[in-house]
Amino acid sequence: MRDQILKSVRTLAAVLPLLALAQPMAAQSAGQQREGSWEWNAGVGLWYTDGALNGFLGSKGYGTSSDPSRLAPAAAVRVGYNVSNHWGFSVGTSGAKTSGIKFLTPFAAATYTANINAKFSPFLTGGAQFTRITGENDQKTHPTWGSHLGVGFRNMLSPNVALRVEGRVGIEHYAELPGKKTAYNSIATIGLSYFTAGRKAPAPMAVRVDTVRLVRVDTLRLAALPPRPHVCQLGKAPPGVPVDEYGCLVFRDTLLLEAVRFDFDKSDITPTAKPILDRVAESMLAHPEAVFEIAGHTDSVGTFAYNFLLSARRAAAVRDYLIKQGVPAYKMTAVGYGEGLPIAPNATVEGRALNRRGLEVRLKKP
Predict the structure, then answer these.
(1) Which pLDDT score, from 0 to 100, does residue 258 have?
(2) How many DSSP H helices and E strands does the chain contain?
């Protein structure tokens, strides 16, 4: 059972970033974000007791039976603070009771969310916990230390209320157990979260109507300023990419940088890619009102999880290089899509070559 639970956690961790491709709710466009918000959560679910621990509790007369039920109804409450779009911290407690045995588990956790502002936002969580176990005859035991790992998701029902589903595996050390000392107790809950108001999004830059042009990004139309009279002369423009009268790259939706390639199984910036990225950096600085996504892709050779991590490392390496060239970090996010967004069949050599399509620079909504 323990191996199955841990395997499920690893699998969900691998697919988490692709599940986050949901678009933010329309309500967020009003300027209210969930970064900087407090999250109040209550839920109910099921508790599952580790087999070795359950046998110990039965043999010591903790419950009404020598073989207590390993499943028990449970409840949990927590309060958390969302520091950023991805990271948050929380404290809370869960409780369960079965065959007369009570489990009370206070915990503290850090949470990584794919996109806290999305309608559907999967997350990973981990931290410390400490389960206090009380028996029928006032017996008590507890671990010497404990931690937990978990996965879950939020689905927004309104701008402030979300359905929250979560599963956690506890890893606790009980010195009193006769055999192995580590117990893997699990809990799964479903409940509601309420978000307080977060930080407000920056006010849009005021521009003259006669200087505005429209740029299409997926199904959104964004107002963007024309490029400044900024001369781009560092490095070189990628082959086939249009440039403006100042030598800066023209960003429209997605800019494919086919010439930015990586060595096999590597994420280091190659000497061939550096002059191209130098021109990309200068061009980004010519668009101070724009924000960008650096997207990496792979073909289907190798495991799904490995390809995702490789594409993420490559996208992050490009972002780090552009930061060193003076592009502000807040203007760029790096996302690895692995093999998840193919543009050709992976069954042929030609198709796989197209799916290893270098890096993409996408113009995003500010």
Answers:
(1) 73
(2) 5, 17
